[in-house]
Protein 1
Amino acid sequence: MTDDASPLLAVEGLTTAFDTDEGELVAVDGIDFTVEAGETVCLVGESGSGKTVATESITRLIGSPPGRIEGSVRYRGRDLLEMPEPELRTIRGYDIAHVFQNPQEAMNHCYTVGWQIVEALQIHEDVPDAEARGRAIDLLDRVGIANPSARFEEYPHQLSGGQKQRAMIAMALVGDPDLLIADEPTTALDVTVQAQILSLLDELQSEFDMGVLFVTHDLGVVAQIADRIVVMYAGKVMERGDVLDIFERPAHPYTRRLLECIPEVGGSRKGGIPGTLPDPHDPPAGCRFAPRCSHAVEACRTGGQPAEHAVNPGQHASCVHYRSDMDRSVLRDGSREEQPAAGGVSPEDE
Amino acid sequence: MGFGTYVTARVMWAAVVSLIIVTITFLLLAAAPNPEIQRAATQAALQGGDPAEAAERARELRGLDEPIHVRYMDYLQSIYTLDWGWADSRSQPVTTALAEGLYYTAQYSVPWTILTILLGPLVGVYSAANMYSWKDHLATGFAFFGYAIPNFFFGIILLLMFGVWLEVIPVVYDTSVPVFSLANAIQLSIPVFVLVTGSIGAVMRVSRNESAEFQHADFMKTAKAKGVSPLRAYAYHVMRPTLVPLSTTLVGQLLALFLGSSLLVEVVFGIPGLGRVTYNALIAQDTNLVLGSTLAFTFVAVVGNLIEDLVFTVLDPRISYDDR
């Protein structure tokens, strides 16, 4: 089954839709991305862009129904969307682990922290209680929780938010996972704790050689940890590329506006993005971002989301202005100087 | 304060509550006219004696001429040593009469309580897991039916159907069959069924609505992401937190039914249990026995509330023992 040439995780044409009273809501609309072993891929976008739904579709944490998940999600060559539920359960929490946004709510308040870590371990491995306890305490120690054997006996409400998120990370590590999916793991924490958790994840990634799929709307976090970036907007991928390329030479108008939202030292901030996300029940006919885009032309408003055009090697933007017959100079609006692509790669090379 | 200290304090509080109740009954009795003294006075007057003297003698005979604090201490002593006096209407000690009643009450109360505690939360959580499906609607309909229909009326209908028409159960409870026998199980099945339908509705509804909240909680997503199977997730991650709010409703529900409906059901099915003993004592104006059964029910309620509080603190680790 395992194919060495295939990436750790390959998502193709992933579509997740929900039936609602107002009709079908397509939260994620045919997105592709890959995560290789040992690298960190950041899914970036504003709230409501479908990032969380996309990550929770990978191991089908979203029930279907209510959701309808289509496309293919290949983990080491095996399609998780086709896999029977019992087989998928052996992968969840063991090979592919999740860390969620809100540590306050992510643990069951009726059980001790230790019980919940041991549960995760004993579901996948037939280990005696004493050994499981020892391993759980080791993991708590590893994620930087002081006095782990005392914390093992405590209930979630006795831990601080940062400690809880550390304990959640310890729980995710029980099976030495190959892929860690972290869904805004630092959003609910205060800034100093946030930095500690990020550096912890960074350490653990190299120690455990995990692929990390990191969801965030915080571009400051992205700059700190990402190897590659996938920018999502309204259920579609807008742009993808290496972190340096995206930060240095953002190609898609949406990415540029997103980067402009990062406050700079001294408090100046170039302003947000005017408008709001399109109605998910009735998405725009052309590019999803066209209604809010200052560069939108007639070609942007029809024909669905544009194809992803190569901008640089490894960097692609889903924007009609990068089509070979379009003039991309219109994108130069001065707010961020566009650099000519190194080596003069022509847009349709790849 | 640790858990042990809390339990000790709570048990002592229950003892204080029972003392307060006993004191109130003493004061009520002390203030009320004693029919026996009046009877003695009437008797003396009819036979040409001095009614006042006869009343005095009767009072002396019963120790009522003692100062009130002495009588109070005597009363307390006899209550707590289970010397509850003589039941005139049954010509036996009050405690014996109550024990005989309890013997029959327990035979149907233990099964319906256990069934309610076991089935109520299970059906409720199952209902929540299948919310708005036909299974949920069926369970909801059953819950409302059981909750709405008066127990004694439902009992009469079932007795008519199974006792009179189908003749599968005796119309009047047969006390001669052994406790653990098929015949006893059959004749108790209908009263147990009636009481379970009466009590399970509220338990099911509370379990359903509380667990509906927990089955969509973030920790359920965590459990799923850990690889926990749906059955285990419901058993451990939904049922357990549901028991916390449920424990506060459950005891009250069961007690209300135990104290109220038991009597009606016993009258309908002719079971000579505690409810009937109390009812007959009231009709016969047997003061000692009425007092005895009132105290018995009161102690059940005090102990029930004690258990509820202890269970609640055991179930919810977030409860601190400090501020009580």
Note: The radius of gyration of chain A is 21 Å.
Protein 2
Amino acid sequence: MKLRFAAAVAAAMMAAGPAMADLLVPHLSYRTGPYAGNGNQYADGFNDYFTLINERDGGIGGEKILTPECETAYNTEKGVECYEANKSEAALLYNPMSTGITYQLIPKVAADEKVLYTPGYGRTSAKNGDVFKWVFNAPANYWDGASVAIKYLLDENGGSLEGKKIALIYHNSAYGKEPIRTLQDLSEKHGFTLTELPVDPPGQEQKSQWLQIRREKPDYVIMWGWGVMNQAAIQEAANIRFPMENFIGIWWSGGEVDVQPAGAAADGYKSLTFNGVGTDYPFYDDLKTHVIDPGKASGGGQFVGSAVYSRGVYAALIIGEAISKAQELAGTPQINAAQLRDGFEALDISEERMAELGLPGFGQPIQLSCENHGGAGMARLQQWDADTGTWSLITDFIQPDAEVLDPLIAEDSAAYAAEAGITPRCG
Amino acid sequence: MEQLLYVAELVMNGLMTGVMYALVALGFVLIFKASGVFNYSQGVLALFAALTLVGIQNGQIPFAHLINAMFGTNLHSFGWTVPSVLAILLTAGVMVLLALAIEKLVLRHLVGQEPIILFMATIGLAYFLEGFGDVMWGADVKTLDVGLPQGISDTAEAWTAQLTGYGFFIDRLDIWAAIVATALVAALVAFSQFTKQGRAMRAVADDHQAALSVGISLQFIWIMVWSIAGFVALVAGIMWGTKSGVQFSLSLIALKALPVLMLGGFTSIPGAIVGGLIIGVGEKLFEFFVGPMIGGATETWFAYVLALIFLVFRPQGLFGERIIERV
């Protein structure tokens, strides 16, 4: 009896694990904890893209993509535990959706030779593939975001921000502190005054910061928030009657859930984005046919088309394209992490390719190389319409200021290379 | 002069914020007074109450995700909405049922145990309720609107501008929170001092076994206290949920209540209010005067530092009962 039970358990475990022919992308997600409201949406988008690929196309190159989830709760320790628990020979790539976890994993993936993909978050200087061999952060990073926000404001002000006052309200964490150095350099270059206002996570209470904003009357407020900090900040901005059109969030402060609690008062709020919004793309017809209607949508399809869901889709799409490229280069559909890394470095997603994938204009063209792991770093602005409850894209993709960013990336990555004993490899 | 007026504005807002903290702290005090238990799950009770309120208001089907996953259905909503007042009453009813369940499934089995055992049980309860709330109502951010006004009070701004030349910012939601908190405290103090059940509650707090020996029903007292604490959690959940949406992080407001309790005393209802006000004002002033010199974002830790300083001089808190144990 005991033997039969053991055999049944073993059979069940084998059935539950990935088949040898599948490609494994462990999915470090967070559906619980203070950031679950955002994490849920991203995870659903990420899963649904691969479900569509598996259901409609039979996977990539005939290999199904498996994305077993591990709950991190946006907690760095748990994220590292998830990484270690899912670190197998077959595991190809990790996308932990947390800058804190990313910083911990950077040395680990280099030692374990796994790909770390951090689209729109993580360590900005990982864009330098010369130093960060296993890390990719295309299509844009935080410094790109800071620069694009300032370039947009330059456009709004006839090319000059001389004498303007800009406040940065940020999540007092590794994530929130990322843009400070860039904004400081940009303030020197363009002559605006920068006020830095940290908010301790999770960020429900921000009265001091907004009273200071009310008193100092900055022309613009830029926000690096996540989770409840976003909702609280937008509500506080509305409370002090700060003009919403002068309030710009990073892409992680640009979800529907961030603006909805403030209701009509959030109308006009802007945020950066590096992906399209809404469901008006042919991709969603296929998603409906192969994933939503058959009841295979992650989380019941509740968030399909939301801004954060779309970002999850986009991350999965880029990974999928890198897998495809890696298979092409390796000449086999059964790739390993090193081959996937090669696929990333040869990644070339054109506008035509985005259209073929059913998402025309959804993202910028991406071309990566040994040196460039971050792409062009463009972003655009979206604005919230509280009446219709939708985001509208209000600019085209804006190029960040390479003159300011490139030296910063070179400096930061060189410091990391010295600290970690890395020899630049691209030649 | 302008600087002085700004500090006055900060103090006003600190007082208002303190009231919001005190609303959470009140629930802790109630349960501690009645059972000597520090209820770790009070913050989660506020989250659960707010989730239930939004769910009832929006006609959301409880456990819809679970039902859909198990039976392949596509259920989400009953298709109706419930008026705010009725939804609040129904939620209060759910909190009473929850209190019954907690007493029956957890507390009843721990009568006469050391307080630390009861404390550990409330930690377990917090984790259970977090997951239960997620499964029951979903983990997405929910908008809560029970008709409470938000935003700057024009009257207060105009009045202070006329008086001082500088219009103060006072949030209308904070004014409502202050009114509700005052009414709540008055009712709770009256209840614990002047009613039979209130006195029984205090007797249970002193000694479970002694209270049982004089015929006080421990079962009834615990259900009553947890129900009241559930109602207080609902009020706190409404105020904080209106401010920034109903989501998991609402349970973390309990962390803001801890220094309030340390300062005001774990057994005093007025202490929770006074403690909240001191913490609220103290953290705002510290952030203003010292924050810029040390990088800002001082509010979270400063509240604890302030509470610890008080503890050095008055371990039982400002209004707490001094416990003397003779060897």
Note: DSSP finds 15 helices and 16 strands in chain A.
